[in-house]
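Researcher: First entry.
Model:
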Amino acid sequence: MKYARKLLSIVLAGAMVLSMTACSSSSTAETTADSSSEAAAVTTSSGDSKGNIVGIYKLGTMTWFIEEGAASGQVVTDAGYNWKFLDCDGDAATYMELLNTVIADKVDGVLVCLPDQNLSQVTVEMLDEAGIPVIAVDDALQEEDGTKIAPWVGIDAYNIGRSVGEWAVDYILDNDLKDDESFGILYMTAETVSSCVPRTVGEREAIAEGIPDFPESRQFFADCDTSAEDGNQSANAVVTGHPEITKWLVIGVSDESSQGAARAIESAGLGADSMVVGLGAYLCPDEFENEDSCFKAAAYFSARDIGGTAATKMIDYLENGTEIPAEYAVGATIVEKGDDLAAIMPEYIK
């Protein structure tokens, strides 16, 4: 299989960049409840349907997955297929119920972001046995050693992490924080999510290269599941456990983890002298409008690019037999408070 990648600020040959628009008014949508699991399902129909394509998402109420699913749904319905968005709400048992349901329904294709990557092998085996093609979005379907076992569309995690780390180096040096004993770096991590680990690796390597003598004693880690609630709890434990640090630079693993960390820092009364950086940027519009928020920057990468690309690749395979590329990765742009978000990331400006 050929690999297609779009790295930071660089478009490589063969990579496809999609600009997605909102769902057309000709589509109809209805919200139902899955009879076997209480999981929310949003179905979008397109007249005389060619077939059915389903997206199963680990946290379907998160802005990221809503936008990603909307982009997939747009491509799917424009191509004449029915689209169903399913949310397993982070629960492995619910996910397996939904997987069994879509197989029983004999759908034509599945896009999936697993709640637990330990379910990768069974997912691929069940869909392969049913003759249903699958594309992993965001989190790969993979073996224990990280080897991908199905096509994947997601972010160029390592290079996105590096871009954030390079931005952090400039922030530290521009604000004379390197030798400030009251300043510390807090990395939000998600060590159990393969798509998140390279983000932190890239961040740390860029900072180590940019400020090689920055002390390890002022670098801290808060592991979480990428949610705002867990991010808040993990960050709060670090912030309250190190009262000697009164100026924080938080480097998130997701926008939600950054948002949770920002609230922890603000609750400790340290928001005015701290900076929180997100990954995703979809929470930036609200955070940047909040004058009390220390969430003031983020790496923007497009959920709609991922969702649209995955759906396009699936349809091209179904209709033309075109082999699905093994990987497609999108890059990022750093946005800061004061930037023209409507021009940079219009899909998140309502």
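Researcher: Second entry.
Model:
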Amino acid sequence: MDLTTALSSLLSAPVLAFALGLLAVAVRSDLRIAEGATQLLSVYLLLAIGLKGGVALRDADAGELVLPLTLSLALGIVIPVVAYAALRVLTPFGQVDRGAIAAHYGSTSLVTFSAALVALEAAAVAVPAYAATMLTVLEIPGILVGLLLARRASTTGAGWAATVREIVAGKSILLLLGGLAIGAIIGHPGYESVEPVFGDLFRGALVLFLLALGMEAARSAGALRHGAVGLIGFAIAFPLVIGSLTVLLGSALGLSAGGAAILGVLCASASYIAAPAAVRMALPEASLARPLAASLGVTFPVNLVVGIPLFIAIASAT
């Protein structure tokens, strides 16, 4: 990816909408976006990604799915363990809070993934059919491993059966898997009839969602005060290092430029939708303010502005 393309991704509508949300809170604007509207946008984005991925998977060779999905599953287990170890060195937090943060960073971010799809399209890098499936595969083990690390010190919270059900039946997994199934069943002819809604409007919905997230990120910044230096350092460095290494790993193992870039983006992203719900249920004594402030207030904008262009550039060069 050349400098012009990189700059255009930094000045894209989604990035600027997120910055506008930050500005709105900074100047104490009366701008508000209803929680119901934000929820509707997240449902739309999840289903749109699932549908498009399912249509692409219908035409994909099953043999091509083995490597990326196996790699995704392995990384979904490894990344939260590495995050937990890094947090132990960098922060003063206890085991439960470290595990809660690791669950957020072991999971994935739908909106970071969505922004990466737009950036890849702008850079003329083909997105593989299995991209949405990787998003789903990475999400579940990342959360479960983080909770397992935390629950070693936890005496309260829901049982494992209830925790697993909360994750699998949650809207993120349900809509992604449901969308993948619907897309695979209807194929291109069926998708053409809904493409004006789920294809043409996707970027506009993403811009609105990022405006809301910018405002939410600005409001959560205060939670970074305790252990701020270590947590902020982790939230900046960890995703960039992990993302770059997984791009190189994916390229070395034979993934396409688009596949390696998406893998890096997913591994560098941090959840602020599925993981908080699971942590709230399984670890009621954990602080949700810290992982949300780190993932949404620091890591998300870092990935949006630096990480996504960096991972695409590395994947395109290898």
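Model: Note on the second entry: DSSP finds 15 helices and no strands in the chain.
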